[in-house]
Design a protein that fits this description.
A four-stranded antiparallel β-sheet has the order 2-3-5-6. It has ten helices and twelve strands. By secondary structure, it is of the alpha+beta class.
């Protein structure tokens, strides 16, 4: 497709159309980065390498259990975006829902620690759909968990996994948000307990473990209050990108689009940086468009962010918005010109003696 169709259009409208063209022609996520070469291109791909390609065929993994995330923690920020130990007490309120999150001495559970919960939820939902009995206590193989959540399986991967589980157990939550129609009236850990049930006879690394989920989370699983997420969620490098994907999946789903003000989006992410840095992070996503399932657009004039599904109806919604925005721009320009003319003093005729 030639770029001639953008001639004569507003620069911002032209840029939006060009981003849409690239997204529609790129059938695979990585295609957006194969032609890098200019000095402005990123040197580090925004997505982590896909470590799942070497899965052992005899291992029971998440390819059999579609990745699932619970709606409660997708809607409300329950995990820190910090990559350093975060020992601050967090409180979030929105539309009558409230969450207070208290860390342990190890810090709050991070959004990367949440991979453990997603893996457990996915296994439970898969078993439930097959008519199998399930319980709050889940037995997992460490290698399977690491591999299917796209984590390294060397020694450091096991060490990070133990640290993640400890933070999950230590983080305490108080909330009025119901799951499965029930409210938990007391503080609870993200997970209730865990224990290693098997270790490698030749190495000091765990082979299997048991994790007991909180009643709050288990109620969500039994009530099927979960959503399917894209496997490439585990490849997103930055915490803010994972949080934005969760929100887009929860609010936009596969229905076309979701529009939100930048200020409210920052609140829903529980981003602790200033608004300028948050806006810069959004602009980076708009530039590279590597968020799974969704395209993202930021509109400077009204300071709003739009998420569009990559399915055809999402593209149709985006095209309709581009046309509407173009008309609004022209209407605004006409009104502005009229206002300027009305304020410009009329020149008096020259005085003739």
């Amino acid at each position: 497709m030639s770029k001639d169709y953008t001639k004569g259009l507003d620069p911002e409208l032209s840029a939006s159309l060009e981003r849409l063209r690239v997204a529609m022609e790129s059938r695979e996520q990585g295609e957006l980065f194969t032609n890098a070469g200019s000095k402005d291109d990123i040197t580090t791909p925004p997505l982590l390498p896909d470590r799942r390609a070497q899965l052992d065929f005899f291992v029971c993994d998440i390819l059999d259990a579609v990745p699932k995330d619970d709606i409660g923690s997708m809607e409300h920020p329950m995990f820190t975006l910090s990559t350093r130990p975060d020992r601050t007490i967090r409180h979030y309120e929105h539309n009558g829902n409230s969450v207070t999150i208290t860390p342990s001495v190890l810090g709050l559970a991070t959004i990367f620690d949440k991979d453990v919960l997603i893996y457990c939820i996915s296994q439970l939902i898969s078993a439930w759909n097959k008519g199998e009995e399930i319980s709050r206590t889940v037995r997992v193989t460490a290698y399977d968990l690491l591999k299917t959540t796209n984590r390294p399986t060397a020694g450091v991967g096991y060490e990070r996994l133990v640290a993640a589980i400890k933070r999950l157990e230590g983080t305490r939550i108080e909330t009025n948000i119901a799951t499965g129609g029930k409210r938990i009236r007391e503080g609870f850990g993200v997970i209730d307990s865990w224990r290693i049930i098997e270790r490698s006879p030749t190495e000091h690394r765990m082979v299997a473990m048991e994790i007991t989920l909180s009643e709050w989370l288990y109620n969500a699983v039994v009530a099927n209050e979960v959503l399917t997420i894209h496997p490439d969620y585990f490849r997103l490098r930055k915490p803010i990108e994972r949080r934005l994907y969760e929100l887009a999946r929860k609010h936009a789903g596969y229905q076309g689009k979701w529009q939100v003000s930048l200020l409210l989006l920052k609140k829903k992410c529980d981003s602790r940086g200033n608004l300028r840095k948050f806006r810069a992070a959004i602009r980076q996503l708009v530039k590279h468009q590597h968020l799974p399932d969704y395209q993202i657009d930021y509109h400077e004039r009204d300071d709003k962010v739009r998420f569009y599904s990559r399915l055809p109806h999402g593209a149709h919604a985006q095209i309709n918005d581009i046309i509407k925005d173009s008309r609004d721009q022209k209407k605004h320009a006409v009104q502005h010109n009229r206002h300027v003319r009305s304020r410009t003093p009329k020149s008096s005729p020259p005085y003739i003696s």
